[in-house]
Amino acid sequence: MSLTAVGGALLFLSIGFAGTWLARRYALARRLLDEPGERRSHNVATPRGGGIAIVVAVLVAVAIGWSALGGGLALAAFATGFALVAAIGWVDDHRPLSPALRLLVHVLASALFAAAVHAGSGAPATVAIAFLAPLVLTNVWNFMDGIDGLAASQALIVGGLLALGLGGPWPLVALALAAACAGFLPFNLPTARIFMGDVGSGAIGYAIGALCAIATGQGGTAAAWLLLPLAPFLVDAGLTLARRVLRRERWWTAHTQHAYQACARRHGHRAVTLGYALATLAGAAVALIMKEHVTTFIASSLFTWYMSAAILWGWLQYSRGAGTDAAAPSWKENE
Length: 335
Description:
Elements: H1 3-30, E1 33-34, E2 46-47, H2 52-69, H3 73-94, H4 99-119, H5 124-144, H6 150-165, H7 170-188, H8 197-219, H9 227-246, H10 259-267, H11 269-290, H12 295-319
Antiparallel strand pairs: 1-2
Helix pairs in contact: 1-2, 1-7, 2-3, 2-7, 2-8, 3-4, 3-8, 4-5, 5-8, 5-9, 6-7, 6-8, 6-11, 9-11, 9-12, 10-11, 10-12
């Protein structure tokens, strides 16, 4: 890692840490607190909105990248869409908004980025990914931000992996995301002193989705390996959502039916966050080692990885009594 990268990482780490400290003071002063409840995974009132520090760090990285390396339509669209997702999340953290309104903003932000990729002569598949990846991951990170340290630690790992493989100004954006999450984590690891809120979870998911789309445009088929470190979140969020839809439940409302929540009820936040981090690190390691292999090998590896994750999801859900919110025992918050 160059001295420039080290300096950038320290800058964004500092923004994440100091910004989270300030956000916590603001949240306490404004009484922006997540209260405990049967559909929540904490047992003490906790400030929210700390993810604004991560948002600021990423926008600073965009500004630096624009001035140092030259901007472009895709970077401008990314910054605009990222800010839109963060803004609707920030408002929602202060005054709950309807799911439909939030989804509409997510769609608009993703469409804006996809249009910029299309204008830059992106291949049709890349344009489709540029729309779907930010939209899907915005909501996946929101769904999975349910226990201490989980969403930020996953973003740190995936952001770090993306920083290693992108060109142009994008490695700086990915580095900012990872380093700012590292600065946020001391306040969010068990027992959390602040949550990232919708401002953080949505913006992180959007950024990772957009960066994955850029990786697809720059790296072609090899970018499919990025699906490996994303597997823990995609499988848990996707299968849990599908099950709730099939049961005709109000899938857009808060619940405690994810596999990570079922596991946390038995083993505590710390163990589950660590377990998910190890799984994601394993996926990242395989992605780095095998990224040059041919398409058929990529497809077979992804199939095996995701099938294994799906089987594990089912085992966690049905062997540990995660079927309904009502059956949830008390949370082991401090472990």
